Every structure is written in structure tokens, then in C-alpha cells.
């Protein structure tokens, strides 16, 4: 007969979660340096909270595909969606997060974490293995926290696609642009903005943020956005030190170009960037 202790030990030996992970003190870490340089304490905390989350996850990977999974990651790490996206893209480009799984499936896998837990898993029946992209069929990443497709009226019946009007058949179709990419005209305007912005990090994320501005900035609007950058350099206390300066993507997503410094205070402008009026007043910023 199997004893209770043997049953308990057997259950433990099959677990693919961890209650701890090594945190080496004093070791020069390129990852920590880059995260702290770009995002300060938020970057440092995000990385170690992510490792804690992975340790607690069965199989030691985390799936951000559905909205609830993504929202939970943001709640645990305490950062905005834009910051989380930028940090994870940076970690993927550094090879710390598996690039293929993240970019194709929005699944987070950190191989170095498993290697640091090798001693723990040597006492168990099996260690987790990296999931394959094939384990997540039908995924196509366009934006974070994908919403499930709406159900059709009849189960299993694809939605009807209306036939185009006869006169439309001969109309040339404009080439489809990848979501978040910029036209040549908008790329030139973004280049002007990026050249003026004092902190040059995560350009690709910043380009996606520029592409989301609605309506698309024309030359005049681009001039006003650049004027807003110059005003922020003078009157926004965050721009005095690089470590506190928002990343360009974060500034664009937060509509920093709508801030109005008239009267010596920073405040939102409901009229959009078209109504930006820089002022010589010096504000008090908390």
C-alpha cells in the first residue's frame, strides 16, 4: 500500500511550477541595466514580477492572447499597456523572452528562467518544455488583448459577405497597409517628430503610436506636435532628466501634444493638438 507521504511526494514531483527562483545579487545584468535605463524602477519591477508570474504558471509560460490574461499581467506588473508592450518587445529583441512565441502567439517564455531552475527540476519527474507555436493554432497578432470573434447567427456558419456593386469591380483597390505601419508621407512626418523628441527609444513602438493618431496629422498638425514637444522640454518637469522623460510612444499614446501650459499649469486640452497654445509660463508639476 502506498503511504500518504509517498502520494504527497509523487504529486510534488509532477508539478511544473516553482515557489522561488534565484536572484543573483551584485551580478552585472545587461537586462536590468537596459530596463532601468529606459523605464526606471518600472522596468526593473516589471522583469522580476514577470519572472514570479512565470514561476507560478503551470508549464512556466504565460499566455497574453485573451483580454483577461493581458489585463491580469498589467495588474500584476502595475504598468500601462503601452509600457508592457514596449518592455516585452525589448525583451524579445534581446532574446530574454522567446521572440517567435511572443510575436506570433503573445505567449511569454523565458528560457533562462528554466535554466536557473535546473536544480529544482532535477528532483522532479520532468521539467517544463518550451511550447511550440503549433500548440496555438489560428493566432494572428495584430493588437494586444484580442477580443474573441463575434459568433455568427448560425453555429458554424461563416458570416455572409455582401457582393460589391457591379461598378466597383473595375475600381483599382488601394494597397492594404499592415496595421500600425506608416505610409511614406506619414513616415516622413514621424521622422520630423522623432528628431525633435529628446528621448530616442523603442522607435517601432513609437511609430505604431503615431499611426493611431486620429485624424492623421498633416504637415500643419505635425508642426504643432513638434511645438508641443519643444514646450514640454521647457515647462514639463519630467523632461529635465532623461530617466524621467516619457518614452516617445508613451507620450504620443497619452496625447502629450494636447497639454496646454497657458497660465503656468499643465492641463489637458479638449480641442486636440489643433488647439495647442504654448506659453512662457512655468508650471508646478507633481
Automatic annotation (TrEMBL):
InterPro entries recorded: Lin1244/Lin1753-like_N
Protein name: DUF4373 domain-containing protein
Annotated stretches, region: Disordered: 127-184, 262-286
Domain Lin1244/Lin1753-like N-terminal: 20-111
Pfam short name (any one): Lin1244_N
Feature: compositional bias, Low complexity: 143-158
Amino acid at each position: 500500500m502506498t503511504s500518504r507521504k509517498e502520494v504527497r511526494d509523487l504529486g510534488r514531483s509532477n508539478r511544473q511550477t516553482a515557489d522561488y527562483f534565484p536572484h543573483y545579487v551584485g551580478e552585472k545584468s545587461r537586462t536590468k541595466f537596459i530596463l532601468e535605463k529606459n523605464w526606471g524602477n518600472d522596468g526593473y519591477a516589471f522583469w522580476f514580477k514577470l519572472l514570479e508570474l512565470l514561476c507560478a504558471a503551470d508549464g512556466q509560460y504565460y499566455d497574453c492572447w485573451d483580454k483577461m490574461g493581458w489585463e491580469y499581467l498589467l495588474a500584476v506588473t502595475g504598468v500601462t499597456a503601452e509600457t508592457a508592450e514596449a518592455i516585452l518587445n525589448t525583451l524579445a529583441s534581446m532574446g530574454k523572452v522567446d521572440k517567435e512565441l511572443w510575436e506570433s502567439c503573445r505567449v511569454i517564455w523565458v528560457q533562462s528562467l528554466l535554466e536557473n531552475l535546473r536544480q529544482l527540476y532535477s528532483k522532479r519527474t520532468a521539467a517544463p518544455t518550451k511550447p511550440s507555436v503549433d500548440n496555438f493554432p489560428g493566432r494572428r497578432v495584430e493588437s494586444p488583448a484580442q477580443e474573441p470573434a463575434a459568433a455568427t447567427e448560425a453555429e458554424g456558419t461563416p458570416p455572409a459577405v455582401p457582393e460589391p456593386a457591379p461598378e466597383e469591380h473595375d475600381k483599382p483597390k488601394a494597397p492594404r497597409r499592415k496595421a500600425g505601419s506608416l505610409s511614406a508621407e506619414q513616415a516622413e512626418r514621424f521622422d520630423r517628430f522623432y528628431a525633435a523628441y529628446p528621448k530616442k527609444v523603442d522607435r517601432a513602438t513609437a511609430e505604431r503610436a503615431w499611426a493611431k493618431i486620429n485624424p492623421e496629422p498633416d504637415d500643419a498638425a505635425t508642426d504643432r506636435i513638434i511645438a508641443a514637444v519643444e514646450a514640454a522640454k521647457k515647462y514639463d518637469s519630467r523632461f529635465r532628466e532623461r530617466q524621467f522623460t516619457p518614452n516617445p510612444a508613451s507620450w504620443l499614446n497619452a496625447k502629450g501634444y494636447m497639454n496646454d501650459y497657458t497660465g503656468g499649469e499643465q492641463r489637458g486640452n479638449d480641442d486636440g493638438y489643433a488647439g495647442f497654445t504654448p506659453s512662457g509660463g512655468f508650471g508646478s508639476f507633481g
